[in-house]
Amino acid sequence: MSEWSPVDESRDWQCVAERWRCQKLAQKRKQALVDIKPTGDSVLKWACIF
Known about the structure:
By secondary structure, the chain is of the alpha+beta class. It has one domain (about 5-50). About 50% of the residues lie in helices and about 25% in strands. The chain has 1 helix and 2 strands, in the order H-E-E. Strands 1-2 form a two-stranded antiparallel sheet. A hairpin with a 2-residue loop joins strand 1 and strand 2. The radius of gyration is 13 Å and the shape is elongated. The N and C termini lie far apart (about 35 Å). The relative contact order is 0.20. The mean pLDDT is about 80.
């Protein structure tokens, strides 16, 4: 079992938030969300892949 890290925790939360945002965008565009991926070296902004 890995040691808990607040950095990983916040990154996971950000991933969930960005996935939710992308799914909302996909619904608006009437497209299916394929995946999300981090852009650059920042994990705070993710790219939506349709």
